[in-house]
Structures are given as C-alpha cells and as structure tokens.
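Thread title: Can someone regenerate the structure for this chain?

I was given the following input by a collaborator and told the matching structure tokens would be attached. They weren't. Posting the sequence so someone can regenerate them.
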Amino acid sequence: MKKNLASLKAKNGFICDMDGVLYHGNKLLPGVREFVEWLTGEKKKFLFLTNSSERTPKELQEKMARLGIKVDKDKFYTSALATAMFLASQKPRGSAYIIGEAGLINALYDVGYTMNNIDPDYVVMGEARSYGYEKIEKAVNLVLRGAKLIGTNPDVSGPIEEGIAPATKALISPIEMATGKNAYFVGKPNPLMMRNALKILGCTREETVIIGDRMDTDIIAGIESEIDTCLVLSGISTRGTIKQFPYQPSYILKGVGEIVAE
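Best answer:
Regenerated them for you:
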C-alpha cells in the first residue's frame, strides 16, 4: 500500500465498482453494509459505477435493496448512461440500431435518441441476451453502409453465478471482423467515463478515489484520469495479479470493509 488509510478516508468523492467490490452475483460482500453506512453518515459523495450496460439504475437500486443496501437510484452510473452521454454530445437526437438490454435502450431514449434499423447514425452494442445471427447480419450491413460502431464497454467476459458470460467486446467482435471497422468503446478503461463520473459527483480528481477489483479496467481508468486508485482483493485480482502490470494502485485493501474497520 503506497498511501495510508487516513488519506483514503479523507477523500470526499468515492467512485466504486460494483461486482467484486460490493457483491458477487447475489451475495453481498463482507463489510459493504458498514462501508455504505459510513459513506452516508460522513456525507461523502459517491457513485456505484458498473461497466455493464444491461440494467437500468432503477434495476441496480432494486438489486442492492434486495441485498439490504438502500440508496437512491441516482447513485448508480453505468456504461449505458456514459454511452448515451457520449452519443448525445457527438450527434444530438440521433438514431441508433441497438443490440442490448433495457439499461442501454432506456439510456438512449432518455437523451432523445430514436431506434432505427434502416439508416441509423450508430450501431450500438452492449450486453445482449437476445443476441443472434440475424441481428449480427443486420448490424454488419448497417456499418458497411456508414453507421458508426459503438461498444458500451471493452469487457470480453463477466462473472455470473455459473461461471462467466461473454461481454460486449466478445459480442461485437464478429461485426468488427466482418466489416473491418473497429468499435469505439465508451466504458472503462476509457477515462471519459471517469470524467463524467467526476462531473456527476461535483468533485475534483484530487479529492476523489476509484475503488475497483480489476487492474485492467478500474485501476488503469483511474491512473489515466489522474484519480487515486484503490484495488480491493475481494473480486478478480490477487496480490499475484498486481505484479503482472507495469502500474500500481494507490491503495490495496482486502475489501471495502477495511476502510471503516477501525
């Protein structure tokens, strides 16, 4: 650990990854309840941030409530919301052919985007359970006709109860390969998502910390955004994992419960 716990607790803004930090699947991780109580009690500014685009903030709020954690839905920020913000800034009130779930579809509707399977401005891919050959074929030909290809995040896979599931980068790869076009990915480790999160929090990067369990998304996103980083070993990373990377987190903890254990 490069910095002491007191300097971490003194931070005003906390950007927390969810899976592997707050919960595993449908199981709350140790110390999370106490950590969230501390955040609210100390009047810290915080966002629960996920690279997944599948669920809406309301659905994430309800999931956390089922696990015994009650927070407002505006405390959740997803790659779907970041993607919607990005597209609205690039082409206000544009149109998109979407392969994804409610989280992504609702986010784009909310910024004034329309669904278009004839001549869209963008083909947008997120996690998609309704993924099939016909949709891939349609997306390929729309991209070849000029639609720009967007991925909500560059994750290849994500954890599920039974093991792992293919995530956005794996699902979008056939479109990239068939068209020869590379997708632009909005989610972590793209610093754009972190900058959006800072704006939502109303915090400077100096007073903020990113807490995550992955060196290749959470920690590098923080480093590239010049925000202090805290790696927790409650998810995918181990102390052995850290040695494989040419960069290091500012803090290393077993879990978020350590922040308030004293």
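The first strand starts at residue 13 and ends at 17.
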